Amino acid sequence: MTPSPAANLVDWTLEASVVGSFTRIGYLVRRRLFDWAPLQSFGLDGKVAIVTGATSGLGRAAAESIAALGGHVCIVGRDPERTERARREISAATGSAVEADLADLSSLAETAALAARFAERHDRLDVLVLNAGALNHAYTVTDEGNETTLATHVLSQFLLTRALRPLLEASAPSRVIVVASGGMYTQPLDVDALDPEPAGYDGTKTYARCKRAEVVLAEEWTQHLLDTGVSVNAMHPGWADTPGLRTALPGFRRIIGPLLRTPEEGADTIVWLAAAPDAANLSGLFFLDRGARAKHRLRRTRRPDEAREAARLWQLCTERTAPFTAGADGSAD
Ligand SMILES: NC(=O)c1ccc[n+]([C@@H]2O[C@H](COP(=O)([O-])OP(=O)(O)OC[C@H]3O[C@@H](n4cnc5c(N)ncnc54)[C@H](OP(=O)(O)O)[C@@H]3O)[C@@H](O)[C@H]2O)c1
After folding, report:
1. Buried b (16+ CB within 10 A) or exposed e, 315-332
2. Is any atom of ligand 1 closer than 6 Å to the C-beta of 104?
3. Is residue 333 part of a domain?
4. What is the pLDDT of residues 206-231, one digit of tens each?
5. From the CA of 59, how far away is ligand 1's center (Å)?
6. Which backbone phi and psi does 4 adopt, to 5 degrees?
7. Which atom of ligand 1 is closest in space to residue 182's alpha carbon?
8. I need a surface site. Which of 148, 178, 252, 258 has the fewest CB within 10 A?
9. Judgement on whether residues 7 and 141 belong to the same structural domain of the protein
């Protein structure tokens, strides 16, 4: 059904307001305005999915919905107890067999090992949800020498997508969903700034820059995967009341409080991108509430040389992950 001009106007007004759009007001109004099909009306029978960061928050909600739609889900966590508890609870809630694997995704070695183990167990991958992440206020570097936010949000996602590409292609049409953030609207793509210095480290800015990079990588992957049947879209969940938000932004949570989305509301678009027929032929876009959104809201985040900078980002990811990709996918991409 084509939305009416009035519905589009209300949606546009919400989008312009930011707070109306990102809080649960946006979710509730758009659900009604566009008469959303319930997630339960989609099916994922026979499909295999990975959801990273599924021990809590959005990843947990997305994994449960995907399992409820009949998908075979492999959840990825880094803590054995939390991961096993989530696996058991999702399985009990949905009646589906749920698989779990462990990897600290700030480690590229662990990311590569995770992909290799998955490829040994499975010959298909229909849905890859790249969700794990956190906003860190302190500067830390991994044993492999990468700043932790860059490693977890950008490099690990790139490596996992690259390593699992043969399975995604073998299962085409298949879908990769990148859980980014509306925070990325505050930052341009700046590859040099993705490697911050410890002095004057700003965790919020670093997080937003990495989220911008995730959205650009979804576009880049779309170009590299043209004609393969693998789509790659980024989305943002709005503001959802999750353990991650509670830890990273307690003051913000106190102010926005009851207007925050539930994890299920924040995860709705993840599941829609994973399962809805309407999302099947879309790639390289940035979604909120089942709708493709602008990638820039501020003039200062646009760069005339964005294509060149995106190529530099691809190069950075390729170089940093190269030691961990031997035999991973055999392609030059
Ligand atoms: N909540 C929001 O309003 C909001 C807004 C914009 C974007 N996001 C994005 O949404 C995603 C999910 O966040 P959330 O709000 O649901 O937070 P959350 O409840 O803290 O969930 C984050 C998940 O990521 C996992 N994780 C973090 N670092 C990891 C690592 N190095 N290796 C493996 N797993 C790791 C966590 O595992 P542990 O259980 O081991 O910690 C947890 O399962 C993140 O990418 C976040 O940036 C959230």
Report:
1. ebbeebbeebbeebbeee
2. yes
3. no
4. 999 999 999 999 999 999 999 999 99
5. 7
6. -75, 160
7. 6
8. 258
9. no
